[in-house]
Structure formats: C-alpha cells, structure tokens
Specification:
Order of helices and strands: HHH
Largest sheet: none
Helix content: 40-55%
Shape: flat
Number of helices: 3
Strand content: under 5%
Structural class: mainly alpha
Distance between the termini: 48 Å
Number of strands: 0
C-alpha cells in the first residue's frame, strides 16, 4: 500500500496587481501615438528591426571608439574580472 501524499500551501489576499494582466493594445497604441513612438505586433518584427537600426542622416554622426582608447572602461572591465576571480577563490569555487 502506498503512503498518502501530503502538501501545504498558503492562502493570502489576492494580488490586485495581477488582476486583468492581459495586454491592453488600445492603451499601448494611444501611448505610442501621443509620445511619437510606435506599436508593433509580433507580425511586425521586421518593421521594428528596421525602425530601431541606426541610419546615418544629416542630424546624426556615428563615432566609434576602441576599448583601448578609453582607459576607464578598460580598467573597469579588468577590475570586474579580477573581482569575480577573487570572490570565486575566496568562496572556493575556482
């Protein structure tokens, strides 16, 4: 004979934040229109990618910097790597 299964659970107040959690398309479209943005459905992913890709124009200039030309960023990356290594060594994970 099998032993009876047991479980427990907690009953608490209903989370009002989770009520009506469905997407409100009309509200999102209105917000996008009022703020100069756009609303994209899953079928419009290609259009979204075209809209967020940087396009050179009269009002934009693209400037690229090497990591080595910005010593603060280089030191930050090296510092994070060393810090992670130190923490792993201290906790015996490395």
């Amino acid at each position: 004979m099998l032993a009876p299964a047991q479980t427990s659970f907690i009953v608490g107040p209903l989370n009002r934040e989770a009520r009506n959690a469905a997407q409100n398309r009309e509200l999102l479209k209105r917000i996008a229109t009022e703020t100069g943005g756009g609303y994209y459905s899953p079928a419009q992913v290609d259009k979204l990618m075209d809209d967020i890709t940087h396009k050179e124009g009269a009002g934009s200039i693209k400037v690229s910097y090497d990591l080595w030309d910005m010593p603060i960023n280089f030191l930050l990356v090296v510092g994070l790597a060393v810090g992670e290594w130190f923490i792993r060594k201290r906790k015996g994970l490395a």
